[in-house]
Structures are given as C-alpha cells and as structure tokens.
Design goal:
With about 425 residues, the protein is α/β, with parallel strands linked by helices. The chain contains 17 helices and 13 strands. Keywords: Signal.
Length: about 425
Amino acid sequence: MMNIRKAIAAGLAAVTAASMLTLAGCGGGGAAQEENPTSIKVWHYEEDNGAMGVAWKKAMEIFEKETGVKVEFEKKSFEQIRQNASQILNSDEAPDVMEYNKGNATAGLLASQGLLTNLDDYVKEYKWDEKVTGSLADTGKYNEKGVMGSGNWYGITNYGEDVIMYYNKDMFDKNGIEIPTTMDGLTDAMQKFVDKGITPLAEGAAEYPLQHLWWQLVLSKADDQFVKAYEMYDGDVDWDSEPITYATQTIKDWTDKGYISKDCTGLKAEDVGQGFMNGTYPMFFSGTWWYGRFQNDMKGTNVTFSTFPQSKKVVGSSGNLWVIPENSKRKDLAAKFINITLSDEVQDLMGNSGGLPIAADPAKITDKSTKELIESFNKVLKDNALGFYPDWPTATFYDELNASLQELVNGSTDVKGAIAQMKSDYDKGVQDAGVKD
C-alpha cells in the first residue's frame, strides 16, 4: 500500500480440478469449466460483524442449501487482494468469485488485461441491470482501455457506500460541544476539543482515511467538469485550481492546529476506526462500511452521522464489486452466488445489519438509524452527488497519494511540494496507462 509498508506475500493454495473439463457455459471463454463441481472458492475482505460480512455469510448458506455445492470461503485483507490481484488472477490460484475494488485503476485495469470474465451474458440471464442502475452501474462497466462507465459488465455490486462524518455524541455532550452542521461549526468544534486536550478527528495516512478527507475537501469546491476530468480523463486537471489548493492547504492547517495528529502517518484504517470506537476521538470521517460495526461494537454509545457539511459532492460510489476471474473453472456457479447476494433475503439482512443494500424492501428495514442511513444515501443518489474516490485514475495513485499526504502531515514537504508531487504521479500514471486520448 504505502511506500513505508511491506508488500504482503500471497501464500495461497492452488485450485485443483476434480473431474473432466469442458468449455465454459453461459459466461463465455477463458478457462475450461469443471463438470459437476463439488465446491467453489469465494474470497472477500469484509469483517464478520460488518453488514456485508453478515449478509454474505447468509448468501453462502443459501448457496450451499440450494446447490449442494460447498463454499470454500477465504477471508483476505484488502491489501492482499489489491497488491497481488494481477499475479493471482493470472494463475491457477484464482478464486471462482471474489470481492474487488471498483474503478479504473483496479477492476478496470484487470478487465483491460483480460483477467476478469465478461459478465454480459449473466447480466442478461439474471437481469442484474434492473437492480444495478444509474451511477451504481458505472463502476461495473469498463471499455477496452479499462475506463469505467461504458463497455462490458465486469463487476456487479450489491450495495452502495459513501463517506460520512461519524460523531460520538456522548463525547460532544460531556464536553459541552454542539454537533456541527456547517463548516465553520466543524472547525469551531474541533478547536474546542483541542483546547480540552483531545485530538478531535480520527485520521490515518497509512491507508485510505486521510486521502478520503483530502478528496472530500476537494469535492467541496469542485464542479462536475472537474470530477469528469480527474476521474474519466474528460479534459485536463488543473492542479493549481481552488479545489486542490484548498484541500491540500486545509490538511496542512488542520494538522498544524492539532485537529489531525501528526502520528496519523503510521496509522491504518483499522487503527483509527478502533480509536473512534474506544473513545479516543470524537469524530471519524470514513465510509458507511463502518456503520454496522459501530452498531455492534459501540452498543450504549450514542453515535450520530451526517454527510460532510456544506458540500454538494460527497466521496462515494457503488460498493465494491463481485468479479469472476477469467481463470475460474466454475463460472456458472460463481454467477449464481452473485445472484443470491442480490436476493431479497440477503439484501434485507444487509439493511438490518447497518449496510446500504441496493435492492432491499424498505418495509423490511426495522432499525430506525439504519433507515436514516439508507435515506441519506438515497438523497445523495437523487442529487447526483457521488464524487467517486481519489485513487481511481491510475494503478499506482493510491500509494502515491498516501505518500504525498504523509509527507505533508509530517512536515517533510509543503503544500506546493505536495501538490507538485501529486500532479507528477497522476500525469505519469495516466500517460503510462494510455487511457487518455
């Protein structure tokens, strides 16, 4: 992930064929398909007590009951899959179906390399395009260059996500501080916590949290054309524009004022999420994928949330994708498993576990706060406010953006230097990928 982190080796067991092979079924070519398989291999990286982890466990149970085929589930870390995906999927070690990150630099890259199965026939068979629609569908389709939004289907999501501000209201009440509803209110609240010796904002620059905050600050000043230029190469990105200079300067200012700890350079997402859960920090800006865990692990704590104050765009998109590696020998079964994750039973369970299902029955969502979360996301969709994620444009920008923000926070570079490095890394990555006409 980061240049300071060790690469995680993929110590993965090989998939063996149990019987004679035939050509692929409805899913198309690639690896020969196994006759009468007795198992499929599923990988994902969700926590067991998170909404997706709970829902997908149920999907595996339903799959085994309906098919008589055993699910060999292996939990991988986000980083294991992200760092080694191309190598793994270009071998016989590939799973039959796995969760994978969406965007040009991840699913788009693998699709353009021929490592993912074209799902168009399955989409038609199961009518997935009637459930996965609009901006949620953009991240599942990629053209021949791996640019999202058009072309063939290579991934299917079954949930949505956006990045929101979580507040520990008990900590706010204890310190006599109001939950902010404006940007001025947010900075005022953070200053009051600092005055009381409390670092207000849980942040980690060793993984995605700080870059998500940086991108949200960019989006608070950006328009649709800026987002299209940055994410889809529709025009040139002006790295001296207000959105980028404002966001980068704000990260520097908030660090200098103590709103963000300089120690965040070594903290991962799980570190700061745990810090929020144990009451070290009163605020955490991160994804709705945390919501179910907070519901389970912070029982008795009053946690509220909102979208980022006074921003028309928010960080977010469809959820991660289910993809079928081209080397899978059990594609039809993999597609059946994906279809079960979109079933009413699994979608309703996800919603009642704190997730954002895309095909749940609202009448079946019983938890009041979860309904509020779903309503908030539905408003984001209605307002066309999803601003995607900052690392999507190139295969290496996730690490490079984190590195630039680390140097900004620890003081080894200034705002101009950080922006110059971001621009250099972005431009080189886009050029090397050959995705821009």
